[in-house]
Protein: Peptidase M4
Organism: Rhizobium aethiopicum
Amino acid sequence: MDNKDLIQKPLSRRLRIFSFDPSIAARFDLAGIGEISISVPWEDLQPGPVGEYIEVVDIDPASEVIYAPVDLNDTWLLAQDGHAPSEGNPQFHQQMVYAVAMTTIGHFQQALGRTALWSPHREPTGPKKYFVRRLRIYPHALRDRNAYYSPDKKALLFGYFPVGRKDKDNTPGTLVHTCLSHDIIAHETTHALLDGVHPRFNEPVNPDVFAFHEAFADIVALFQHFSYPTALRDQIARTRGDLEAESLLGQLAQQFGLASGRGGSLRDALGTRDPKTNVWRPTEPDVRALEKTAEPHARGAILVAAVFRAFLTVYKSRSRDLLRIASEGTGVLRAGDIHPDLAARLAEEAARCAAYVLQMCIRAIDYCPPVGITFGDYLRALVTADTDLNPEDPLGYRLAFVESFRAWGIHPRGMRSMSVESLLWPSAKDLITELIFSNPLKDEDSKDRIARLNQALQSMNAKYESVRSDERWNQKTSDQDMSLAARTAPADLEPVHFDDTDRYKIWRDAEEMSQIFWKWFDDDSQVLAHALGIVRNNNASLIRSANVTPQRKPTVYQDGNDYKFEVHSVRTANRRGRQGWTTSELVVEITQRRRGYLDEAKQHEKDASSTPIPDKERGDFYYRSGCTLLINPRTMEIRRVIRTAGTIDDDQELARVRNFLTGGGLEPGNAFEMARNAMRAREPFAMLHR
């Protein structure tokens, strides 16, 4: 045995980064917080750095230069927490993107309770998928004012550009590197992580899809600010504990915004500075803001503001006692700097609130429909996911979210109540009961309906048993990554340790589990299928309405007499709640696909045809529907069902997608051409971020 094998590896690696971006480190009054050291989980690294999750490739095509890769295992770098922050050192740029990206991955793994996986490569004309072990990061990929995640390349591409402005914040000719902005790195890494969970969220079928991608990436970057104690205590002290005041904590990518002529940070969740008076004004909720906003970044900013407002509500509640003690009961602090001890305690409360909100926001993506996400769907996901993990809500996080979303005019379509319990996604049993009792057959009395309900539930339980008895199922579930939650501390601020399991095996097992579930749902169980929003054949639609004869839609992809469906993904989730117990569940996504035509007359012609449409005919766009299921892996009970707004044969929902694509909802100009480009774009974020 080599002596090196006897040396225990450290749990973390310390690396220096810019806490916000280089412009903050260059300010005299903020010099103490501009550069910080953070801990990332220890892993064996090759020069690059190249690890289990990330591969940094530093090629600069515009300059025709390949920069030497940084070796973070070098003794000198280990001793001094890596390279010192520098705008002119490419090796520090490599270190910066690695450190921030790994921090972001850690937050996802802790919230979702599983090993992070990137979206696989897919064959353009076939169903085959290929495992992607590492996300590639190119710190100097573009000489452009842009940075984006490439779903096609499975890579983050960061640009740099010369400053053309001359003012107190900018010097002409100097370079701005997007790879040195903490917020831009976290934002783009979040795009990649979200794509690994929901690849169909790249298809803009309503105004909220791209806006959600942008908002969610901003939310992660924003609340990651609160995980850096030095910067947090400084900003708490400067604002005297008032997080509604202007501070760096609510701003994103300040250097990029100033250099590109925006006059301030790229986005601000708290407020904006009036360009005429230079007075900073907090953002007030506007219940009609969504109705007036279509551009994805501006629309996404509304969701960010709603989430941040909910965070502020809980933070104020948790810190009110500290302010009363410090102000001798008045709640109004005296003029001047606040005591350092008070600043430290307020920072602690802010960090705990922010950590919990960040975990809520990430965890909720497992509770979203597989396609066509809306802000209202995300609110239901937030409330349901938090209820499942922490049934009691003594600090009122869920009420704060519902109140804030209501103030910004965000609500699920078709909901009759905005109470917390009404927003919870239902179980399969609830949906089957509703299906049978809301659509009784002719001449059927209550006893017949109860008998039919019991028969449907018994059939569903029999299907559970068929899966549990499958040897492949028992092998796959026992091999799944079930150890992460056990090592995830219940405390809000303790870091998660990365797993040492084989990520390829986890991905491969999930693909094989998808086949098991496909066989499960392919069995003849029409009541269950329609309760889940899956349409299989003509007779199945009779369950939903006994008095209406459905019309088969040739535009739906079919296999003989049945509509095709896809078990899109199977994921595990292992989470530990506040009470200390751990929950394990499976997240299963099922989708169906239909050809959509931008010309409504052509759509009617195709659907009225008696001739089957060849599989190779794609149409102008895809209309997809389906559901996400939360399943107990031990009992196979379907605890939660998250359905899309319509089923695959729903003409009204298809028309809604068509109207969005042809109504100029994406970009001005030729709406038909933009719709085709956006639905089939291989680089949607390059277009979106330009």
Q: What stands out?
A: Residues 478-500, 539-549, 668-675 have pLDDT under 50 and may be disordered. Residues 222 and 250 are 7 Å apart (CA to CA). Residues 296-326 form the longest helix (31 residues).
